[in-house]
Amino acid sequence: MAQETKAREDTGTDGAGHTAVGRRVTRLEGAAKVTGKTVYADDMKLPGMLHAKALYAPHAHARIKSIDTAKARAAPGVYAVITADDLPDYKRNDSNRQGLIFPDKEVLFRGQPVAAVLSEDPHVAEQAVEMIEAEFEALPAVLDAVAAMEEDSPLVREPLHDVDRSEERGHVSVETEETEQEGEPSNIASSAPFARGDVEAGFAQADVVIDRTWRSAMVHQSYIEPHSTIADYDISGELRVWTSTQAPFYIRDELAQAFGLPESRIRITATEVGGGFGGKIYLTELMVAALAIAVQRPVKYIMSRKDDMLAGTPAPYAHIELKTGMKRDGTLTALQSRLIYDSGAFPGAPMLPGCMLIGGYYRCDNIDIKGYEVLTNKVSVGALRAPGAHNATFAIESQMDMMANELGLDPLEVRLKNAVGEGDPMPNGQAYPAIGLRECLEAIADSDVWRRRREVEATPNRGVGLAVGGWLGGLQPASAIVCLNADGTLNVTVGSADITGSNTSFQQIVAEVLKVPLDMVNVETGDTRTAPYAGMSAGSKTVYTVGRAVKEAAEDVRQQMFELAMKRLEVEPEDMEVADGQVQVKGAPDRAMTFQRFGKLSTNFGAPFPVIVGRGSITARKMAPGFSAQAADVEVDPETGQVTLHGYAIAQDAGFAINPLSVEGQMQGGASQGIGIALWEEMQYDQHGRLLNANLLDYRLPTARDLPPIETIIVEVPSEEGPYGARIVGEPSIVAGAAAIGNAIDNAVGTRVDEVPITPERLLRAMGKL
Amino acid sequence: MRTFEYRTPETIDEAISLLKEAGGSARPLAGGTDLVVQMKERATRFPYPETIVSLDRVAELRTIDFSDSDGLRIGSGATMSDVATHPAIQERYTALAEGAGVVGSLQTMNMATIGGNVCNAAPSADSAPPLLVYEAEAVIAGPNGRRSLPIAELFRGPGETALESGELLAELRLPVPPAGTGAVYERNTPRKQMDIAVVGVGVSLTLSGDTIGRARVALGAVAPTPRRAQAAEAALEGQPANDETFAKAAEAAATDDCSPITDIRASAEYRRHLVKVMTARLLAQAANRAKGTS
Ligand SMILES: Cc1cc2nc3c(=O)[nH]c(=O)nc-3n(C[C@H](O)[C@H](O)[C@H](O)COP(=O)(O)OP(=O)(O)OC[C@H]3O[C@@H](n4cnc5c(N)ncnc54)[C@H](O)[C@@H]3O)c2cc1C
């Protein structure tokens, strides 16, 4: 497969005669980014703009007794201090972090914003925040999700009603029955069961049964650019927001509902996103818009790194109990699991995808899975690239290795034997479409890391491990517009934020359909007023869905040109084709009209043709799940517990890699994050719910020196609906890292750590050396 | 960040008089990699400075000289990059080159000064164990002239030094290591860079033949200050340079020479364990270096 990608690069075609898709293309916006020209939200300045700084709750759980802002208001340079009492009218939604701008009675986590100071000078605002005199009465803080489930646990908060789950659905489409907890108030926000067959009978058939509990730390998306938002509201009732988001239309809809404004009066611009990974959907926008409405001036709010770590939407801690049984021949006979996701102070933990994946990689007749989403007095969680997936995958993929080891079976063979394929049921009974899980396993077998396995294992304290990971993907309608310019070049407008290079893929798709050089096509993400609708750039669905709309829009342009050319070329559209920047008669390239001619004829004074505008509009109902297999080569220092990575490989099914360069970038980026989750990343809280490492020195992301070269192998099992067979790409790469590294460590030193990150100290303890 | 006065003297004397003029609320600024972060986070161990006296333009603070007769003189304003890449330091003060060479990242090393590292007085400061094993003298300049102190006496507690308000660390003087000396510094961190030592160990061994003449061992991040490990040194001096001796000394270091705490980076128990493992390893490495140079 790697060779295939290479061949493409050399010849510029993938054998299917493609001229633009399937080629390695550098990013449209890349030059601006690397030369520092990109304008991020924080670079923007509006006339009369005020800076907002927030007061964050100093308790994990407390009643608000009083907030006295008199001193802060009186400080020179302070324009206003806004608390819950000073906010404009809005439809408050307590079930939703974003929908509760400032609390008025109860604070639910340390770092929850309770008031804001506005000033023309951000430093003045920051100093004035310290002058707000807020009094709290501490309440019992519930910090452990497992203990929080007990009937006699104190409650995290006043009971909730009507939980809004629209954001979660942007990331993954799971058809299931999820029950909001009813009856006695409890900290369990929701639960969901998935069962088939008879697990007891399944365990009875097994030759080996493993029953373990796996824990994974709360981790932060750690995008380089913290949350950044500017809002402006004018007396005509027009609300504008510039914000670093993956989901401009979603924010528009939420703000419209909250303020009772028509969506047509709201204009959200998704500024260039300096990293999102699922964490930049919707967080601060309602607050900033409310502040702007309150003072009738533009307001900018930029989170510091610390603010973002305290009050962003990180990924949950999970506690996963898993019991699995396998027969001597490697057949998986039963799988039983209880998955507990710590949601923080608001519902929204990705428990469902965890349930779907823990029982979704392997065929198994007997499953019994129950997921719980539990509230605690910690910051509420959100999505992080394949939300909930790595936690569950760490459990099942560790146990697959453990069972294989006990039975003396090859870990790769055992996986191949059980791996799901087209038609196999997911835990909710839905059948998989065509997927490439098996193909990824076959491809990873061919990686350098896996092929050198025997040789590596012969070295003391070195080992190689393997794991798979996947993501089901989100689904949402999408649309696009392609306009022919007077000089024959093309402008593409979409409503999807570009967080991964998707606009570059759209450029390739249009160039492919119309057979023009890439530089004749430009792509723009419009704002929610100028762009046609697109779903949020989440759930790995952007190229899969918006790409289809773009393709349709380009085909529409082509069809319009064919029809307009009928008179002049004297043939029917069926006998025309596009090539080399012109419409020509098939087999007679000299009977042609150039794109430039179409451009002139459709725009000049008195021109005969109507303007050529192509439109693409689709709905997406078919999933195109993406899988990857990953292999790690590690060395353990047996005296310090330090783990060094010597090699790493990832094989991922992209369906069809429209831009192999960016697909590989996604694979390497996700794998790096998976490695970080495996070895370093962990938000550490103390017994008062205080985050102890709210900075990137003590919250350790892997640096370039910690990562080995990451070998990438693109697998292509076409999806049914995606453009050129493309399927979801962005998320699957993060999922397998924790398990692959855990398995490699076990292979190296015969020790399993049941908790990620596998810190040197945890490993040394598990080895019995501390 | 709160507002403050910013001064830019060009000589040590001028800096000292500016500090004096501003009184207790003034603070010298070198590379700012500790101070600016602490000010932003409101985490200074002293009152938030109202005046910042930048040492950036004080050229005399940046020099590094070495001579066989006088040894090494490092201006407090020399950056970690200056120190780590200086030929005489790389050749004769290997442990110091190693300590300076692990600070943060390349960008950090280009800003961070050795004086700032010492005066910030973190128990984990990476230049401290090397300076302790080389028995550096701190030359301090103040309103009443100059004084000097052994580096071990400069460190008083986490973030605390023997400097009086208004005093500056001017330079560090390191004697020439005796012939037959091998020295090494290493730290343990979860990441390979951009990290703070969980434990730092510096050792210096002077061998005559196979016998250890002089031994210096210093530990970082396992006590309120970086400190010498006297019990380990005693277990080494006069003994044969072999694994058995190193193991005994390592045991002594872990048992008697440290009082680690549990924090977010590691437990006390793990730190103690690391002191033992690392001290034994580094002693063996230093002995090899000593043999290479003698
Ligand atoms: C990203 C990052 C990574 C880091 N990694 C490491 C690391 O790996 N190892 C490590 O040890 N440290 C590390 N640090 C801490 C810091 O870089 C070092 O301690 C550095 O040497 C401080 O030097 P500076 O010149 O920046 O000092 P400054 O921040 O300017 O000053 C530090 C303190 O010393 C005082 N001071 C400075 N110069 C003098 C002087 N001549 N006389 C009297 N007082 C003075 C200042 O008033 C201040 O209190 C890191 C910091 C950052 C931001």
Please, could you describe this protein's structure?
The complex is a heterodimer of chains A (770) and B (294). With 770 residues, chain A is of the alpha+beta class. Chain A folds into three domains: 42-139 and 222-311, Aldehyde Oxidoreductase, domain 3 (Alpha-Beta Complex); 318-474 and 622-766, Aldehyde Oxidoreductase, domain 4 (2-Layer Sandwich); 476-618, Aldehyde oxidase/xanthine dehydrogenase, molybdopterin binding domain (Aldehyde Oxidoreductase, domain 4, 2-Layer Sandwich), CATH 3.30.365.10. Chain A is built from 22 helices and 28 strands. In chain A, the strands form six sheets. Chain A has a seven-stranded mixed β-sheet, with helices on both faces. Chain A has a seven-stranded mixed β-sheet with strand order 7-8-16-15-14-9-28, sandwiched between helices. In chain A, strands 17-25-26-27 form a four-stranded mixed β-sheet, sandwiched between helices. In chain A, strand 10 and strand 11 form a beta hairpin. In chain A, helix 11 runs parallel beside helix 12 (389-407) and helix 20 (660-679) crosses helix 21 (737-749). The radius of gyration of chain A is 27 Å and the shape is globular. The model of chain A is unreliable at 1-13 (pLDDT under 50). With 294 residues, chain B is of the alpha+beta class. Chain B has twelve helices and 14 strands. In chain B, a hairpin with a 6-residue loop joins strand 13 (211-220) and strand 14 (227-228). In chain B, helix 11 packs antiparallel against helix 12 (268-293). At the A-B interface, helix 4 and helix 22 of A face helix 12 of B. Residues 27-35, 37, 55, 76, 102-104, 108, 111-113, 115-117, 119-120, 124-126, 163, 168-169, 194, 196 of chain B line the site of flavin-adenine dinucleotide. Flavin-adenine dinucleotide (FAD) binds at residues 27-35, 37, 55, 76, 102-104, 108, 111-113, 115-117, 119-120, 124-126, 163, 168-169, 194, 196 of chain B.
